[in-house]
Amino acid sequence: MQAVPMTALDRPAGRVLVGLARLGLATVFAWAAVPKLLDPTSLAQSIDNYHLLPSIAVQVSALAVPVFELVIVLALVTGVYARGAALVGAAMLALFAGGMTQAIVRGINIDCGCFGSAAAAQITWLSVARNVGLIAVAAVVCLGPERLFVRGGTTTGGARPDAENASGDVATTRGA
Amino acid sequence: MQALRIVVVGIALTVASVVLRGLPPLAAKGGAEESATCGAPVPAQPQVRWITQEQAGPLVEDTTNVAFVDARDKNAFESGHIAGALHVPMDTGTVDAAQVAMLRGFRTVIAYCDTSGGCARSSRLANLLANAGLRDVRVLEGGLPAWLERRYPAEAGACRLCP
Predict the structure, then answer these.
(1) Closest by alpha carbon to B110, among B91, B136, B133?
(2) Which of A22, B23, B24, B113 is most buried (most C-beta within 10 Å)?
(3) Of B6, B23, B76, the CB nearest to A84
């Protein structure tokens, strides 16, 4: 008996969508991470301008943010813990959107620091909307299958075993 | 569980990054403060007075008669400052003739900074301007942080009117 896809994202078209979502998300995070890694001082100043965190938290965040972004990129590209990475990425994007929203509401018109010193970008509601859009893309990855390449209902290789029924067919399981 | 593993890896690499690279500096609050306050002493001028946020807030609209002057460094200024503020950084602890000339046309000049060191930079700037002959020079109580908390007008970018 063939394995039955659980959702639309398990179907071939859905897997393509999930693959594109992973690639797109990885590209955005990589583009954001590299300039931040190269210039943590500018990032620290950008974070400090939000007037939300004490100095030591600002300085640690300036190192942590690009590191986490790179980890997410690697996970999305290799497919290892991709859904968990998308979940963490979505949480980061939500956090940044919250920070930008409070800056806009407080009337602070400052560089958002989103892409390090590579591209100074004033905070606008478009910046917030962009993050919300990326969260939606991350949600597609979270809800999609762990493995994108399926052959005849049987998953190919990989570290995480799928549950097998008595006939040797495979039923995919989920867990981020 | 996957997300937790991603977080653990991220934390581990962040710790390694902190150990290897050290923490990045923030816009030299201590450094600029020291250069501003360790310069030649500036006698306190009697005409330099404090101005409260509530008094200064409405004055931001009077761009003809009132000038807000930012005493912080260039990066801090361009990252965010009081709307319409001019920039006279206290990195060197001095002001030059062009900067004074820029401010002579205003009835009131209000200096501000980020309040580190008890508003040392803005106080020094105010006294230097008063020394140079400006009659009504104030120091903004609470500086930029208090201004932003009250959601008074702020903006970013380079100084448009500075020499």
Answers:
(1) B136
(2) B113
(3) B6
Instruction: Provide CB contacts within 8 A for A57, sequence distance 6+.
Output: none
Q: Is B154 on the interface with A (CB under 8 A)?
A: yes
Task: Give B27-56 pLDDT, tens digit per residue.
Answer: 544 333 333 333 444 556 666 788 888 899
Look at A71 and B13 and tell me if their CB atoms are within 8 Å. yes
Among B141, B36, B31, B161, CA closest to B87:
B161
Which residue in the block uniquely carries the two structure tokens 């867990």? A175
Structure tokens at A71: 């980890």
Please name the residues between 83 and 142 in chain B that touch chain A, using a CB distance below 8 Å: none
Give A-chain residues touching B151 at CB under 8 angstroms.
105-107
- From the candidates A37, A45, A80, which should be mutated to test the interface with B, based on the most B CB atoms within 10 A? A45
The mean pLDDT of chain B is 80
Does the structure's ipTM exceed the value 0.90? no
Tens of pLDDT, residue by residue over B66-116, are: 999 998 888 888 888 999 999 988 777 778 888 888 888 889 999 998 765
**CB A85, CB A75: distance < 8 Å:** yes
Query: What is residue A99's predicted lDDT score, i.e. its pLDDT?
Result: 84
Which of A60, A81, A111 shows the shortest C-beta gap to B156? A111
